[in-house]
Amino acid sequence: MTKINTLSPIVLFTHKKSNNLKPILGSLPSIKKRKIYIVSDPEQNEMEKLFVKETKELIQSHPQSFFFEWIIPNSHKGVLHIFDYALDIVFEKEKQAIILEDDTIPSPKFFKYCEQMLEKHENNSQIGSIIGTNLGALHDAEMYCTVPIGMPFWGWATWADRWKSMPKDYSFWDRFILTENYNDLNTSILKPLLNSFDNNRKVPKSWDLKWAMFQLSKGMECVIPGSNLISNKGYSNLATFTKIENSEFENLPIDSSNYSNTTFQKSDQKLKHNFFQKQLVFLNEFANRKTPN
């Protein structure tokens, strides 16, 4: 079993949004032995070139409290492919990882929560991911629960064996829709979520939908926290998808309470119910996102 004093590496995905990198880098636990993978997706055109350059320079100028390892593909991958590309590299070296993006601000408690849950569920193959946001569903700092669909993956963690078991194509979903389990879910309150997944199978939009689909098809659940531990600052014109005005999920407050002695305990159904209701609103926004680039 992984011990909490064995620090999980952090993977930080960056592209062209540098505004939030200082608070993100400043939030990382100041432990020199922790490895930080920096994923930098190259520009796809001249307009993005300056933004990508500024992002790299900001990271390179950060005080070296960590060991940085860069992952830079030869050409632009886009949101549909960059996560597969980078995490495949990371998980050839690491057994588990904590994952952030350049617009996701974590609570200091987020890292301890991830480490505790990674340790607790390491040998439970029915847990696929640890999710950092609860979309404002509840504020109970010492609770967590498991849900069948954990989106959004704004700040999260997982293990190499779970990630590497996902096929490159959607054959797993084609098999799943023929099962009784799918039919049961399709007549339940999860039907709106399944509609989004079916649409993504026809026209893939993003890596996170596929990852959620795979976990659901394999009966894996996701862990979510009782208080919100991630705030997404990416609702802007530079975003690939989150350009929605007046979203209730923009700048969600994060739990900044004392976390040093927190031991997370499994919650009752209230958190799960509230989270699902928030998910429906979120996925309604998600369904209206434009094709990624």
What would you note in describing this structure?
It contains 10 helices and 11 strands. The protein is α/β, with parallel strands linked by helices and 293 residues long. The chain has a single domain (10-287), classed as Spore Coat Polysaccharide Biosynthesis Protein SpsA, Chain A (Alpha-Beta Complex), CATH 3.90.550. Strands 3-2-1-4-8-6-9-7-11 form a 9-stranded mixed sheet, with helices on both faces. A two-stranded antiparallel sheet has the order 5-10. Strand 1 (10-14), helix 1 and strand 2 form a beta-alpha-beta unit. The protein is globular. The chain starts with 9 loop residues before the first strand and ends in a 6-residue tail after the last helix. The model is unreliable at 1-5 (pLDDT under 50).
Count of structural domains: 1
CATH topology: Spore Coat Polysaccharide Biosynthesis Protein SpsA, Chain A
Full CATH superfamily name = Spore Coat Polysaccharide Biosynthesis Protein SpsA, Chain A
β-strand amount: 15-25%
Structural class: alpha/beta
The main sheet comes to: 9 strands, mixed
Total E-strand runs: 11
- CATH architecture group name: Alpha-Beta Complex
